[in-house]
Design goal:
Residues 20-109 form the Cystatin domain. GO terms for molecular function: cysteine-type endopeptidase inhibitor activity. Keywords: Protease inhibitor, Signal, Thiol protease inhibitor. There is one protein chain. The chain is α+β, with helices and mostly antiparallel strands and 110 residues long. It has one domain (27-108): Nuclear Transport Factor 2, Chain: A, CATH 3.10.450. It has helices at residues 2-23, 35-52; strands spanning 26-27, 57-69, 71-82, 85-95, 101-108. The longest helix is centred in the first third of the chain and has 22 residues, at 2-23. The model has no long low-confidence stretch (mean pLDDT 88).
Length: 110
């Protein structure tokens, strides 16, 4: 029984790794301590606030992944407060080869 569970677990790990390769995203190790990722999170919140005339206050990026494309796309999970309530948001920021940043999406996480 234990051997079967171990085999299933190993198979799931292999499938997860294959999905990550196909998807092309790689996790950012310790995103909370990565100053570059934190700056991208602040940028995303500032852009969102400008475009939607909101007042979300940036707290921190708690999780991030990146994908090489025409530049690098960063998939961010951001904590921030909106009207005094802590919320989690998902954002995608593209950093172009010229180092120009563009927010592609920003929305509350459900």
């Amino acid at each position: 029984m234990a051997k079967t569970k171990l085999t299933i677990f190993a198979l799931l790990l292999v499938l997860a790794a294959l999905f990550a390769i196909v998807e092309g995203r790689e996790p950012v190790t310790d995103a909370t301590a990565d100053t570059g990722v934190q700056e991208l999170g602040k940028f995303a919140v500032e852009e969102y606030n400008k475009k939607k005339q909101q007042k979300v206050e940036f707290s921190k990026v708690v999780q991030a992944a990146k994908q090489k494309d025409s530049g690098t796309k960063y998939f961010l999970r951001i904590e921030g407060s909106n009207k005094g309530e802590m919320k989690t948001f998902n954002a995608v920021v593209l950093v172009k080869p010229s180092d120009e940043k563009e927010m592609l999406s920003f929305f509350p996480r459900r």
